[in-house]
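Regression check, NAP case 305:
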Amino acid sequence: MRTMKLGTSSLEVPVLSVGCMRLTSLNERDAEQYIQHALELGANFFDHADIYDSGKCEELFAKAIHMNDDVREKVILQSKCGIRKGMFDFSKEHILHSVDNILSRLQTDYLDVLLLHRPDTLVEPEEVAEAFDLLEKSGKVRHFGVSNQNPMQIQLLQKYVKQPIVANQLQLSITNSNMISNGFNVNMENDAAVNRDGSVLDFCRLHDITIQPWSPFQYGFFEGVFLGNEKFPELNQKIDEIANKYEVSNITIAVAWLLRHPANMQPVIGTMNRERLNDCVKATGINLTREEWYSIYRAAGNVLP
Ligand SMILES: NC(=O)c1ccc[n+]([C@@H]2O[C@H](COP(=O)([O-])OP(=O)(O)OC[C@H]3O[C@@H](n4cnc5c(N)ncnc54)[C@H](OP(=O)(O)O)[C@@H]3O)[C@@H](O)[C@H]2O)c1
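Current build output:
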């Protein structure tokens, strides 16, 4: 598995993260096998959130991996907090309380990375700063990041928070690529020019914040997988053609498309299927040509100005 530095930190991480949102779709035995398989592939970075199946994904993970001090040293654990039923909550009290619960469910003393899950407009960044300082001083969290945040929100946080924001987890796939499209269509009078994210792609590149694309195979908001889906005939034809050339499967090309971007992204892979995970890891050995990358982008229905 290829590795990279996470943001400006010295933490060396695999270029693919194993998303654990769907872990409880497996029973304990299958979860154990899946996690062991990931580790054998060198995929030892696991992405969690306190809300995944109401904490049960974190609990199952700890059981399935047989968490102890030796095991803990071999894995890199990221989790998220800040989403509550019907609201978002970046208060100091909620962040501290959430981390204690996450650590207890994961049966560990520390998180390698904590992300704030979704922007809270009632955020008081001074409070976040206090929470992060306490978490860092106590050794409960080593690195900090965000998810689904635009550049101004990150800058507001960073005005008060002294720890660098090392990652921003954002929805990004071949079929959900507005953050790329708006950069092609600056100032054009078309829908692709609509800048919904404040140029987050360029901002993250400028500040060495690692983008972690979530739902790399989904279209819409969890509407389904675009791979092999008859709703996307042209795209699948193009992906299959390139997959044939490299003698890999279509999912490998979908991951290679994200990895080809020079922003050094770390896609969060959500499959619970060992074969598919193997195929995703194969993408780390493929460097799509510029022509291939653009032809996939266009086949998804995107038009270059
Ligand atoms: N920060 C955020 O707001 C946020 C939001 C959502 C998710 N996430 C993170 O991102 C991770 C990935 O999200 P995700 O699971 O939605 O993304 P995903 O990897 O795009 O989707 C995984 C799902 O698609 C299925 N799948 C993949 N390839 C397939 C294929 N070729 N044919 C049929 N089914 C296929 C998988 O089924 P199999 O298991 O059978 O392969 C699984 O159910 C999550 O685990 C979580 O860690 C973060």
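Comparison notes: The CA atoms of residues 116 and 146 lie 5 Å apart. The mean pLDDT is 97. No diff flagged against the previous build.
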